[in-house]
Amino acid sequence: MKKKILPVLLALGIMGTSVPKTAASGDLLKNQINISVEDMVIEFPTVLYKEENYIKLRDLAFVIKDYKEIEIEYKKDEKGKNKIYIKDGKYKPIGDELKGDIDFKGAIIGTENISVGNEDLQMRKVNVKGYNYFRLRDLGKALGLDISWNKESRSVRITKMGEMKDGDIAFRETATEKTEHSPILLVKDAGEGNISITYSVKVNTGGYSLKTKSVKRVGNKIIVTPDLIGPPADAMVTQVISYPTTSIIISKEELPEGYVIEIEGEGDENGMLSDR
């Protein structure tokens, strides 16, 4: 069986309907992030709200226009409500893309109706002087883009979904001697563009230690193969169920959008291991 965990670090949320509200003074901050598309790194003006970066839809469309063409249209739907339509086509710049002069006076926080292809979505937004800013990950998911952290350039990397190739992932082991009394699978932000994965394997006697044999990316799955090391043949061991545990560090740059971590080994009856 396989142990699985859906990480919350890179979780994406498409928001339901909410009542728009005027942003309070100090709720919004000007910010700037670097975004890499293919071989380019672009400085992006953003709106920082609740420690999350919101980017202008037209800015993103302008930057990716030679990489993924999209056309943006603002019009009323069949019910007479304002709606943003995004479809395949050539983006037409209007001349104010990537401008950093953001004035928060009268800014509105709420949701926006968006049609992407044949799918209708509602996304959380910040509206500043008539321009809609959305969370980059929400836009990435809607447009079929992977959003990840590029450690070398210290920038947010944008790639088309599916461009990440399957294969081995480099990792660093940080602990191998700890033993738990219950199963564990824990994913945390490790800083500097990394995550840590702490996991255990069930054994029926004491004296075992755990290391990691390999980490591979297969589609959206991150598959961790454990290396269980038994005690010496002449060692005195207790006949008790235990869970030798180890931790590894991997780069967020290696993680596809919507990734799932699987540990090869034994889990509970549903193949799931508790995250505690």
UniProtKB/TrEMBL annotation:
Every copy of the PrcB C-terminal domain together lies at 204-248
Signal sequence span is 1-23
GO terms assigned for molecular function: peptidase activity
The protein's matches in Pfam families, at most eight in alphabetical order, are given as: PrcB_C
Q: Which domain of life is it from?
A: Bacteria
Instruction: Keywords in alphabetical order, please.
Output: Hydrolase, Protease, Signal
GO biological process terms held by the UniProt record: proteolysis
Question: Does the record bear DNA-binding in its keywords?
Answer: no
InterPro entries in the record: PrcB_C_dom
Descriptive protein name: Protease stability complex PrcB-like protein
- Name its species: Ezakiella coagulans
